[in-house]
Amino acid sequence: MQRLNLLEETRFEKIPVTVYSSEAEATKVVAERIAKLIKDKQAKGEKAVLGLATGVTPIKVYQELVRLHKEEGLSFNNVVTFNLDEYYPMLPNEPQSYVTFMNENLFNHVDVPKENIHIPDGSIKEEEVAEFCKEYEQKINSFGGLDIQILGIGRTGHIGFNEPGAAPNSGTRMVTLDDLTRKDASRDFGGKENVPKKAITMGVGSIFKAREIILMAWNKKKAPIIKKAVEGEVSSDIPATYLQLSQNVEFIVDEDAASLLTRFDKPWLAQDIEWDDVITKKAVVWLSQKLGKPILKLTDDDYNTHGMDKLITEKGPAYNMNIKIFNELQHTITGWPGGKPNVDDSQRPERANPAKKNVLLFSPHPDDDVISMGGTFIKLADQGHNVHVAYQTSGNAAVWDDDVLRYLEFAEDFSKLVGFDDQKVKNIYKDNVEIFEQKKPNQTDTEFVRKVKFLIRKGEAIAGARFVGLNEDQIHFQDLPFYDRRKFDKSSSYEDDIQQTIELLRKVKPHQVFAAGDFEDPHGTHKVCFDIILEALKRIKETDEWTKDCWLWMYRGAWHEFPIHEIEMAVPLSPQEVYKKRLAIFKHQSQKDLPVFPGDDAREFWVRAEDRTSETAQLYNNLGLAEYEAIEAFVRYKF
Taking the complete model, does pTM exceed 0.85, yes or no? Predict the structure, then answer.
């Protein structure tokens, strides 16, 4: 029997969803629930049987459980664990194995008996897999079944490695991994071609037997699949939708992962709401896009038949509402991203004064500046502002080994040309040829190779910034320590990075700071870089007077743009400016054709960038505003 959802605001949701303000808060709740289960079972002299997951999602849950063990005496001596899955083939001591993952994140730090740990064996012969899977199910049953099963969710909607097409009654078995799943794992394996094509996984039916199921999801990257799993129809195309059929499941997510659920994304469709300015603008833009009508052509009937009758009653009629929102959008558009001097700026996104501003553009990688906001970068320089660019990381991870050898060959020939001793370069070249021949997938580069790759990207960044119009003293390479350090040290301390950023901010004293605002992957470089900038600004705000006149603008990368209703400054580009931006991007030769980390998108970065800005311009045009070749968008972050 299906659960009845009697709450108006969640009437689109077919699974109980609990939303927390942050991942940290949510993971603590999950860890405490697991800890309570363990203690309750201990009090009864019983085993606590846990179904465990891997990946980024449960890491903080495990960290909290370890803390509870070390600081509060939580014992795991009565715990039995069964992991969901393992790649196949996979040796248990490989860095990508889930045995390694579980040992590093949980088992090595608590007192769970080794004989009570069960993880699918990726090292057995293929002809032995079927029998192993049968025995795995029997072992779970022998302990009375799983008391609790924690899950993450993949972008395909897989739970465990139950990919699209999985049956709801499936048991533990060998499966073939979806191509998207392998792409998502490619960074851990040094390329998709190194990711195993198969895995051993507990089935959907195995998961359903658990007495309690908790699926966790964090960040906006998971928001689309969470919406489909919670509000969509049950379908084998999205295995997580099968959880709608369970009476024992709960989704625990943070606000970002829940952001596309109807009650948050379009609350006017789910409940009676208070129509503030933010919701009003979002709703009117949505209505215009849904109906394919310019804003100024929307009618009272359009509003009334799409859940917005209260809005028209309170703030209408439609004509007045349309004019208001149209003007708000119109006022975001400016060809003067640094502010237009000597004009009334009350209806403009940027201040008129000072006429010539100090601008500091932070670029997480050495090409984000020109890819993400190259047109605006060029305008700021052309309009006479004192523009500085800071490349926050070396970006060395995104350079092919072949490029290193090519540059070493050049160094050898150059040494000959100018009469230097080229023997040392020859030896270095020979040594690195041998290193690359023996290099394993995802193996960390030597310090020398990392430095050469940094020099390659540094030279490209200088060429791009010079093309824009900057002088050498306006180009800064921070090479923040966290970027290389986190390859060897999982420490979350960024104090030295923050101090270095504070020094640069105080040197430039910017009126405008531009920073990458891509938050879909909070464990990625962009998010870390933004947090470092924000922390630096917050600290010096207390003491430095100039920060009172400093505005922080966020831009986004080549993949996703801010929603139209969130954009606060839209900078239009002419065809000539788009072409000049393209030439600036072309200075980054190591990232052309096929970058090391292309993601899901096969297009080159410059193509993605042009398509994104063209699409933004078209969205503005569809809403009834002026038609431009391209638009770069920005959102102000008030710190």
Answer: yes
